[in-house]
Amino acid sequence: MNVVVFVKWVPEPEGTPTLGPEHRLVRAGVEGALDPGDEYGVEAALEITETQGGEVTVISMGPDEALPAVRRALAMGAHRGVLVTDERLAGADALVTARVLAAAVSGRPADLLLAAVESTDGYTGTVPVTVAEFLDLPAVTFATRLSFSDGELRARRQTPAGSEDVACSLPALVTLTAGANEPRYPSLKGIMAAKSKSLERPTADDLGLDAQSLVATQTVEAVQDAPVRGGGEILPAGEDAARRVVDLLAEARVI
Amino acid sequence: MTTAWVHAEVPQTGADAAAFELLAAARAAADVVEVVAFGPGSSAAAEALGAHGARRVYACDEASMASARAGALILERLIQEHRPDLVLFPTSYAGRDLAARLQARTGSTLMSNATAVSGPDRARTEILGGTRIVDVRLEGPTPRLVLLKPRSAEPEPVADGGVADVVPVAADVPADLREPRVLTRQVEAGSGPSLDDARVVVAGGRGLGSPQGFEILAALADAIEGAAVGASRAAVDAGWMPYASQIGQTGKTVKPDVYIAVGISGALQHLVGMKGSRRVIAVNKDADAPMMRLADLGVVGDLAQFVPALTQEIRRRTGS
Description:
The structure holds two protein chains of two kinds.
Chain A: E1 3-6, E2 9-11, E3 32-34, H1 39-52, E4 56-61, H2 67-76, E5 80-84, H3 94-105, E6 112-116, H4 127-134, E7 139-149, E8 152-159, E9 162-168, E10 172-176, H5 188-194, E11 198-200, E12 218-225, E13 233-236, H6 239-251
Parallel strand pairs in A: 1-4, 1-6, 4-5, 5-11, 6-10, 7-10
Antiparallel strand pairs in A: 2-3, 7-8, 8-9
Helix pairs in contact in A: 2-5, 3-4
Chain B: E1 3-8, H1 17-29, E2 32-38, H2 46-51, E3 56-60, H3 68-82, E4 86-90, H4 93-106, E5 110-119, E6 122-127, E7 132-138, E8 144-148, E9 165-168, E10 181-187, E11 200-204, H5 213-223, E12 227-231, H6 233-237, E13 258-262, H7 268-271, E14 279-284, H8 290-294, E15 297-300, H9 303-318
Parallel strand pairs in B: 1-2, 1-4, 2-3, 3-9, 4-8, 5-8, 11-12, 11-13, 13-14, 14-15
Antiparallel strand pairs in B: 5-6, 6-7
Helix pairs in contact in B: 3-4, 5-9
């Protein structure tokens, strides 16, 4: 089974994000990594191909800075990587991103497409399903576990009320929640092997996308700081602190 | 005349606050507000939706229409026929999937995580964990699509409501449309008050250390009438608490009178789900945790000792 995993480079979660010109998140020169939420998809893809054969292709869109994210997935064991880089894609919105990712999948053998439910920097949460629609595929979102039976995909997914088990024919797209498995750490051997793996660097033109399809249709008009709250008192745990918490609850009339 | 559509999810119990919030937001953005509702109970919701300002309900009562693939096909067809300027969706499991699919079909822009809509092409969102407010102009083909976060608007019936006109919509989709089939459904029985309406939310995170850590939290919630227990994503991902209790970007947005965060450091993705709380109390072993900076009152120390002591103090004061 050939599996495509969409991954994203995100700025270091511990860092302080800053906004640059045109209110875009500054990515150049910023420490970043493979989105931790994407490691579950890579791990799931590796487990599937280890038992069923086939290859794992990791596809990403981003500037040169994003290369380490793809390399990490290769070091975990993915067979090939694709990083679409094009300066016209700086500031791409969800629709443009989905067009690019769908174009990057086209022509590749892909029985299963995996992605995280959402990125940990943007939280848009719509790109994978938009890709599925472009590729005319069914989608199982919020999956917490995956298996296969009679050539079909089986998945458990989170629902607002609990969970449900679903079956879906292939090819299909699945979005995985964090915690769906235990992502492996790249081994030294894996890191060395990653250096000789296929890493394609197409531009938007290479993918056959016209200039118009790369234009983002959202423009930030204004950014302001949200009102800052807090600045409250900090106390050491103890009887006094407990009394003060209870005072506050009483003031709020909830006890 | 501008027209905004609201994609309403109608539960078995009838249209509820989630749809009314969207209707209130849509009324602020356009002259005419109409609803699209798919699935059983859609037509029957016309009265409740009309009372909240919907003039018309495009309704398809077929159960098969609850799927995002079929829904996107039908919605695209309705859009081509009626040309709304804006379509609002709830930020829900189904809402995200439907809007995402529709976007691919219409080529329209889709704004996620909006907190307000001020016109058919203007939406507001919050980024970087709610520290910045961003106003965005929506361009490109109409209708513009917006996923509105829960509790972004207050439901408000209109004075001249009346029953919305029902326009029946045929569930006319190709028979060979591949979809996941649901084999079984599991309902996680929630205990105690629902997180959405609770006046007090007691939420725990990784700092509680184990599923057993949530037992002292449950005891604390038990001592406060009407308090619900929530969890951070870290605690849910660790399998300590069910997903239904998750507060934050991917989970629920809560706005209680008092939010008590225990062992939650305050990752941006969590803060977005609770920063609308009126008062915040943080209990953490780390005085520098972001949640501490946000709190009206912070307590630094050992959770396993302090939380039971607090529970006892509440019981002493309330005589319960």
